From TrEMBL:
Protein known as: HD domain-containing protein
Regions of compositional bias (Basic and acidic residues) in chain numbering: 199-211
Gene3D superfamilies according to UniProt: Hypothetical protein af1432
InterPro entries the UniProt entry points to: HD/PDEase_dom, HD_domain
HD/PDEase domain location: 29-119
Amino acid sequence: MTELLPDAVATLPATPLADAVIEVVRPLESRSVFNHSVRTYLFARLVANRLALSGYDDDLLFAACVMHDIGVAPDGPHVERFEVEGAERAAGFLVKQGIPVADADQVWQAIALHTSPGIVQHRGQLCVLVHAGVAVDFGGPIGAEYVEAVTDEQAATIHAAYPRLEMVRSLTDAIVAQAAKNPKNAPVPSTPADFLRERATDGETRLERAARTSRWGN
């Protein structure tokens, strides 16, 4: 297993596809959500290292992680739950970049299922790693089993490069706003429906409350 040194843990892939993904995603998302998306990749890579997983395509992992919340971008059609909308946008973008349809479909699955624990673990390494990266960035409220894959030193390096900026609140705001636009965006049961209901009844979601005592906070 290759050790990822502290000065390399915040390094992004230098490939044409990675550059294209950043170019399309960065203008569409708030800095908070964009940083979360990038940290998802960096944390996913550390989880892969800890689990000695090596059979995944790093470019596809980067694309799936960085595009996993593009479904809440304000310019979207907002006619499906954000996970599916993001998966459709990401897969369509990748095909236009010349990525084979089968590979784009792997990214589709990873994004569409990233809020589906109990299912995502059965759909291959890419799905597992995207879900794990998201879980680690929430610091424990979800997927607590993956958090210990990251040392304090590694986490400090990543957070210095891509600050949190009240990510949990910012991302929840975006999911709730997207969900409220169309009943199809928040089918019951689903994460968007839960967030929409909890915000309406309690003013905040259980995830936001849990973040206060998570490893990284909000």
